[in-house]
Structure formats: structure tokens, C-alpha cells
Amino acid sequence: MSDPRPNFQQASPAVFQAMLALEEQSRQSTIPATIRQLVKIRVSQINGCAYCLNMHSPEARHAGVSQQQLDVLAAWRESPAFDARERAALGWAEALTRIEATGAPDADYTAIAAQFDEREQVELSLIIVATNGWNRLVVGFRSTHELRQKENAA
């Protein structure tokens, strides 16, 4: 195991506060909570951020995301469980998260432009940017999530 890494929240409270402000702004968007949560989870899946997956999965269920959607989210392109707006948002989330490989393709932009107005496009992009930022801090500094008690324990 590697040497312990600093707790980024304690090491630089100002950076943490800036990230919280970015997060708060993303929560003020007009993007529906279900889409916000699906995007946060998909971005966190791509980035391998267990901390954020652990946080956003219960939040998604609370917001009304179905368990079926959560179960198949990693394979959303092959599943009929997502509507056109959700598909456009997820495609854009993947494109921006993997921007070094995708360059934010016109096809993905065209899909969000057909489903979201200009303000929503920017707000959706901010949600993606904020989630990627959190993922990079959490994964980079090896933050770990708490274990939940097993459900259905005898």
C-alpha cells in the first residue's frame, strides 16, 4: 500500500470551500434531480470513484431514479431504461469526462442541443465538471467511504 495521502479538506480548506461553492451552484441548476444523479454516478463510474458512487447511489434512489436504471447505468447505451433526455445527458457526461479521447464530438453536442436549451447545456456541463473535480480530489487523495450495515442482515 502506498504512503498515506493528506486529507484534502483539512490540508486546504479554501480549496474545499471553492469546491463546495461549485457543487452548490450545480445543485441550483434547472436540470432535474434524476438526471443530475445519473450523470454524477456515470462520471464517478468512469473515474472509479467509490466514495462518490457510495454517496450518489442512495441520493439517486431518493431523487426517484429507479433501481433498474442504477443496475444498468454502466451499459446505458444498450438499455431501454433511459429516455432521450437521459441518454443525451449521459452521452455528454461521457464525452466531457473522456475529453482527451473524445474532443467533445459534434454528435454528442447535437444530442444535448436537441434535448436541453442553452442554459441547461451549460448547467449540465457544470454538473459534469464539478463531479470530475470531486472525483479527482477523492481518488487522488485516496478518500474512503464508510461501510454501510448490510441490508437484509439476519
Automatic annotation (TrEMBL):
InterPro entries: AhpD-like, AhpD_core, CMD-like
SUPFAM superfamilies (UniProt xref): AhpD-like
Pfam families for this protein: CMD
Domain Carboxymuconolactone decarboxylase-like: 13-95
MF (Gene Ontology): peroxiredoxin activity
Name of the featured protein: Carboxymuconolactone decarboxylase family protein
